[in-house]
Amino acid sequence: MSYSPEASIAPQFLRASEGGVVSPNERNLLKLIWRHPGLSRSEITSHTDLTQQSVYRIIDQLAERGVVALGSPKPGLGRGQPSPTLRLDGRHAYSCGISVNTDIIGICLMDLAGNILGESSVTLREHTMARSLDLVREQMVELQRQNSLTSESFFGIGFAISGYHVGGTRYNAPLPLHEWSLIELGPLLSDFFSRPVWVHNGANTGAIAESMFGVGRYIKHFAYLSFNYGFGGGLISDGELLLGGNGNAGEFSGIFDIEESKRRPALQYLIERLNRNGVDVPSISYMRKHFDPDWPGVAEWVEEITPAYNRLINAIRAVVDPQAIVFGGQVPPDLAQMLIERTRIYDRPRYGVHRPSPKLIISEIGTDASAMGAAITPFHSTFY
Questions:
Q1: What is the pLDDT of residue 53?
Q2: Which Gene3D superfamilies match (predicted)?
């Protein structure tokens, strides 16, 4: 039987009568509150097909459970008794996002309202999978202690890993993560952490973070480029992650053949180039933090990958037609800007009219987007 994290959700988070975390109507209202924080209870009715009586009843039930908090009313909203403003109550639950990259594991604690409670990381180099998980748990416990968090409000874990999906909760990760590859991560991690675990590709959780905290706040259709040790991405359609039939939508490296793949914008190749040019860059996370566009080898590498990069951008434009293409993952912003400046759109105007092109935008997520997206995934999958 396939692994389902929903089956392991603790009873205190479930609805008393019908089971599940929230009903479809409750979920729709929670989505509204997420998208419009500070919306008043009376204003919600105009955003839904539900009657005012139903809206008030559902909100009162969510508030009684501690999922929604009622705030001070907005002044000047019509006659009668002022209506309280609404927000998600972060005290109801928190989650942990874990993102396994080739050199580092990012950790992010987040509450139900989307507030980051703490972040940490574990160096992956020369550690076994078992040792790495022990270190992650130690860091997670420390973050819980720093925030005085109880185990009762610990909802679940979002787990992200570099690599493509092969079925169930199995992923085929790059060589540095061979021990993590082709095994059912969901039940293994659920047993280890004693919590339900939602497993995703790291590029997908990066796209989720961008959708919920970054450019997705005002753009609902975009492609997310995830520059990491390898190179992948994710697709957001109408604000939601598009997985595809096999769970690998957005695996952009798949358009390149074996020879071309060596000239795709994977950061492992840039690090190799830098090291050959005498620049000591021990890891991708180090490069992101200390990147200098004038390092010897950077301009040469960018020039070499530009043809493959441009073909990718135009393939995304032709097939997906997004409003924007977001440059994310672990790419240094200055490097992303260098690529954007070299972008060439293969446009053939008809009757002097051009086909619309996507905006090219550097990610607005300044922290570990993959871990951040992993942290919000348990809530996004169940509450809103």
A1: 94
A2: 3.30.420.40, Winged helix-like DNA-binding domain superfamily/Winged helix DNA-binding domain
